[in-house]
Amino acid sequence: xxxxxxxxxxxxxxxxxxxxxxxxxxxxxxxxxxxxxxxxxxxxxxxxxxxxxxxxxxxxxxxxxxxxxxxxxxxxxxxxxxxxxxxxxxxxxxxxxxxxxxxxxxxxxxxxxxxxxxxxxxxxxxxxxxxxxxxxxxxxxxxxxxxxxxxxxxxxxxxxxxxxxxxxxxxxxxxxxxxxxxxxxxxxxxxxxxxxxxxxxxxxxxxxxxxxxxxxxxxxxxxxxxxxxxxxxxxxxxxxxxxxxxxxxxxxxxxxxxxxxxxxxxxxxxxxxxxxxxxxxxxxxxxxxxxxxxxxxxxxxxxxxxxxxxxxxxxxxxxxxxxxxxxxxxxxxxxxxxxxxxxxxxxxxxxxxxxxxxxxxxxxxxxxxxxxxxxxxxxxxxxxxxxxxxxxxxxxxxxxxxxxxxxxxxxxxxxxxxxxxxxxxxxxxxxxxxxxxxxxxxxxxxxxxxxxx
Length: 453
Fold this sequence. Notes:
Number of strands: 28
Order of helices and strands: EEEEEEEEEEEEEEEEEEEEEEEEEHEEEH
Largest sheet: 7 strands, antiparallel
Mean pLDDT: 95
């Protein structure tokens, strides 16, 4: 792969907007006034990619029209892959376990040992719930890879993929164009979209997290009394511009995940041959540094929902199948307040990852590339060191917190089950995690008296 083609990429902007793009080498390649003319410009084929049912309400309807050199249906016979590594949608293989879980950074395969692992091969499922056959649920994966997908594309027929790089930039080629996605950026590849991932650098060592949702597409959270602006602003989301290649003769592999299983099919033409496209259904990326954080400015610690970047809602109002929440650098100015996250028992499952730096509530033991899982109603909160430090500050002053760090959370109303790979095989479970709370001392003083007002 010539990574020079990823330099100085241009993007379209907007979230869920109606966008249109033509490769500049083929001006006028978008049909005028209709989607399926008898003959498309340049002898192209028209192909619709539907992200929702035809009859979905207009404000929820997602589809794009692709104008390509050959339609996607030109390929050989499908076959099921015998080895799909640690990628699974089975969440009933272990007995339930409500314990707090923490993982040390997951290993990245090294080329020095002879391992060549691409993005798809490097997907490992940590936890999940539901079933892709019923189109309900989610899965959480970590990817650990060191080589590019050569003459290979992948699509997911089970749901959307929210990709969070932690180490190593990714060059992602899609049917809609190209994206460069670096740590502190996220990328959403929606249901059915074909893409290929190239790693960057000599070692190519790349690691990150993936949230897969089976139900619906991600959207921006409602802002309510915050107003019309704030959190993740629509103008900061970026979509690729059309960029095609016309290559025949070589053998190209199309890999697909369907009903939790991996399949593949071969074809003799390049899969990324879209000359032009238009619609509101496309891949996109977002830089977490663009998030406009809001916070309490008087007293108390606000609920972490104020840091929601994207949400995938359930059929119950205000209840998410999955929220993507970040904990960005921000000012803490509250007075007479315990400023770290409060101790908590939640009706939601909380999976956390760390992209960079240290997490404010647990500055030791939780490392970039690692993870934690706090299940429904399992107690969690700051460790003993954080509590003692935060309650000893008698003269609280405004301070910039979480500088140089970025933690995130996948939060879900579903009760997540952990996979055998995550609990038994990866070798990264921190068996002493619960000890971080063991030194929380009793401070109760029955003789304490309130100050006279």
